[in-house]
Amino acid sequence: MSSNDNDHRGLLPAGLAALLPPDAAREARAIDVAIERFAAFGYERVKPPLVEFEESLLGGPGAALSQQTFRLMDPVSQRMMGVRPDMTVQVARIAVTRLKHEPRPLRLSYGGNVIRVRGSALKPERQFAQVGTELIGVDSAEADAEAVLLAVDTLRSIGVSDLSVDLNLPTLVAAVASGVNQPEEAMSRLRRALDRKDEGGIAKAGADKRAADLFAGLLRAAGPADKGLAQLARLELPEAAAAEAARLAEVVKLVAAAEDDLPLTIDPVEYRGLEYQTGVSFSVFALKGREELARGGRYSAGYPEDGVSESATGFTVYMDAVLAASEAPTERPRLYVGLGTPWADCAPWQVKGYAVVRAVVAASDPRSEAKRLRCSHALIDGEAVPL
Amino acid sequence: MSSNDNDHRGLLPAGLAALLPPDAAREARAIDVAIERFAAFGYERVKPPLVEFEESLLGGPGAALSQQTFRLMDPVSQRMMGVRPDMTVQVARIAVTRLKHEPRPLRLSYGGNVIRVRGSALKPERQFAQVGTELIGVDSAEADAEAVLLAVDTLRSIGVSDLSVDLNLPTLVAAVASGVNQPEEAMSRLRRALDRKDEGGIAKAGADKRAADLFAGLLRAAGPADKGLAQLARLELPEAAAAEAARLAEVVKLVAAAEDDLPLTIDPVEYRGLEYQTGVSFSVFALKGREELARGGRYSAGYPEDGVSESATGFTVYMDAVLAASEAPTERPRLYVGLGTPWADCAPWQVKGYAVVRAVVAASDPRSEAKRLRCSHALIDGEAVPL
Q: Pairing between strand B106-115 and B44-45?
């Protein structure tokens, strides 16, 4: 190898990294485990292309990511294409177009990489591996609960235990607001106070007592699910809002029935980052580190602007957070075999779990050559000798 | 679901397809099998990003794909990036930069998707899944043979048997040409005749007898490896060309020793599509259909224009051809379970190999609901009843 310095060739754009050994293999294995859990619950994999026409990629819920999408001119069609910033919209597109005649609910899964124009201060990455599911065409508490339980099951299978789930109703505040009929200015002060979780601000917003009490009550419902739901039940919510709260209670009951040790919290006033959700939404966290590992919830799959839309729920697992929260598996032992070892002699060692590293140049001392090649063992006189 | 027609949303750019069930899962499984075979021979996975700076992506052997690369302006660095049209160059870049201090030979593997600006008439696809290996930093017949044998082993593991391998020496013609010292015009006629495999054209090219005999001899060497190598050995090749032919003979001997039933052919004058190869190259075909399933060979990893370059060999498996040539695995049975089935009751069926499809809406007749959902079985009174 030349000793010239060509490190400039190795520079990558900010937020775009190469995964090296053993991280690349770990990420791929974790994605496989997730896809296998999804398949065990009847979710079938689809693979949308990396690039699509802008029109399909950024229609419907995809519009929210328009600013984050790299554009390419297609020389074949002379139309603009986008590099996918997210896969949910692509999977939903497949569901309402190519798979529109399949029976509902339609269960689909996906795993792949997405690219965004800019990272954030908190998350500088611009390429992510996403793996997740969509359950399309049924709006029921059982479907909502299946998404939560499958996310938890998947994370545990990948090797993250000690999870907690936070459930949200991102459209609840709007439903309460439209039911209490307050002056516009008071309402915007109320919502700002809610965003800051500022109960004093709610009292001073200038809304009538019923509205102020309702919003303060919503704020107090944040916390452990059982107490929060009891708090919500005590409020005299407008009809649409009451229906949302009842759905949340049903979902919590179904999740708790399957997972009695899983810490469940609710935060019924949270909606940030959930702009395209239309019903019960959730985040799964690792108890250690409080990192968000997966996020999902109910949304409208399709293109409501075309009059084509189906209620759906699903979730995405954030692979980078999951790998940071799970333990690295032990690597397989590496067995060095000398020059001229018959090809067929490798298989028995591979069956025993070794990676067989074949010599491709002569070496006078197999032990030191094996060590140089980071092998744990060398094949000497037919034996795998530890080094 | 709305009955509105929104098929225009489902249109994809020419050459960019979505894989649907079961093809997406099949492709992913085949990639997993390949990566596992690579790991069993000590090849460690790397995952380069989808997008890199033009400078790293299109340096060295990457220059050949410049016309096929989509460009993006990076708003962060204000520099041009390219969407990868190939992964070999990325893996080689990682080897000579981030992993330059790792011991040689360095064995790396990769699996991922690439995008090209245009498809060809024969292959209209513009997105491909590539999976392959690179063996970097050693130039030996054993290394060349390892690439061939690992490609064959991998394809068989994926489920394609009945393979044949065609070996090439894409720089041999140039080595012969520079050794025979003919007038420029005669030489260009000779090479055109070689490209057309036209022995009569060689005789009429106006070269001297020694040159014409050598080129005709190269042409006659194409065919079964044993006869072809014997034919090459009879020629009085210039020194550099003789060394290349000797290397090819050594590689054939090593491959045949490991695989005595594998049909081996050589075509020493073929160089088309092998422009960046610098030594023994090969294609693996399925005997049925004669489709090219994998291609590889020796090349210079790195950026020779920077004085940084290492001899390497490797191969890429073409997933689309492999899937067309292999049989689809049988799908797992799908078991419908009614509303209210405890979550924990699914696991025993999943262990038995069923995909468990949980009801998320009530159904009066589990059998017909299960059939509607394309299930093969329904859980009735604790039994998996076939439908």
A: parallel
Sheet of B355-358: strand order equals B355-358, B334-337, B377-380, B383-386
CB-nearest to B127 from A49, A259, A358 is A49
Confirm if B294 and B158 have CB atoms less than 8 A apart.
no
* Cis amide linkage into residue A263, ω under 30° from 0: no
Averaged pLDDT, A220-238: 96
Instruction: List the single residue in B with minimal CA-CA distance to A345.
Output: B258
Strands B355-358 and B223-224: unpaired
Could you tell me which residues come within 8 angstroms of residue A122 by beta carbon, excluding any fewer than 6 positions away?
A: none
Is the domain spanning A13-161+293-329 CATH 3.30.930.10? The answer is yes
Single out the residue of B17, B15, B50 nearest to residue A76, CA to CA: B15
Question: Which are the contacts of A330, defined by CB distance < 8 A and separation ≥ 6?
Answer: none
Q: Show residues of chain A in contact with B374, CB under 8 Å.
A: 103
- Which of A358, A369, A373, A374 to substitute to test the interface with B, most B CBs within 10 Å? A358
Residue from B4, B7, B9, B139 whose CB has the most chain A CBs within 10 Å, to mutate: B9
Question: B342: distance to nearest CA of chain A, Å?
Answer: 7
Read off the DSSP letter of residue B103.
P
B27 to A20: CB separation less than 8 angstroms, yes or no = no
Interchain pair A18, B45: CB under 8 A? no
Sort out which chain A residues have CB atoms less than 8 A from B53's CB and list them: 11-13
Query: In one letter, which amino acid is A295?
Result: R
- Residue A97 has its nearest CB partner, among B6, B74, B103, at B6
pLDDT at position A4, please?
Answer: 45
Q: Which residues of B touch A341 (CB under 8 A)?
A: none
Among A76, A111, A127, beta carbon nearest to B50: A127
| Identity at A147, one-letter amino acid code | A
Residues 6+ apart with CB under 8 A from A168: A266, A267, A268, A270, A271, A274, A277, A280, A281, A282, A283, A297
Helices (runs of H) and strands (runs of E) counted in chain B? 14, 16
The amino acid at A321:
A
Count of CB atoms situated within 10 Å of the CB of A262: 17
Determine the distance in angstroms separating the CA of A297 from the nearest CA of chain B, rounded to an integer: 15
For position B10, what pLDDT does the model report? 76
Instruction: Provide the residue ranges of all domains of chain A, joining segments of one domain with +.
Output: 13-161+293-329, 171-269, 334-386
Helix B209-220 and helix B225-234, axial crossing angle in degrees, nearest 10: 170
- Is there a contact between A211 and A190 (Cβ–Cβ < 8 Å)? yes
Residues B332 and B21: their CA atoms lie apart, in Å, by 13
- What are A378's strand-pairing partners? A336, A385
Question: Which residue bears the tokens 């696809």?
Answer: B125
Q: How far apart are CA B166 and CA B148, in angstroms?
A: 10
- Closest in A16, A55, A258 to B49, CB measured: A16
Nearest residue of B to residue A71, measured between CA atoms: B72
Q: Write out pLDDT tens, residues B175-204.
A: 999 999 899 999 999 999 998 999 999 999
Residue B42: which of A28, A308, A356 has the nearest Cβ? A356
A79: left (phi over 0), alpha (psi -120 to 50) or beta: beta
Q: Which residues in chain A have their CB less than 8 angstroms from residue B140's CB?
A: 360-361
Q: pLDDT tens-digit profile of A246-297?
A: 999 999 999 999 999 999 999 998 877 777 889 999 999 998 877 899 999 9
Contact yes or no for A327/A159 (Cβ under 8 A): yes
> Residue A36 is inside which H or E element, if any?
helix A23-40
Tell if the CB–CB gap between B79 and A13 is shorter than 8 Å.
Answer: yes
**Checking phi first, is residue A131 left (phi over 0); if not, alpha (psi -120 to 50) or beta?**
beta
Residues B11-170+270-331, CATH architecture:
2-Layer Sandwich (3.30)
> Please, what is the average pLDDT of chain B?
93
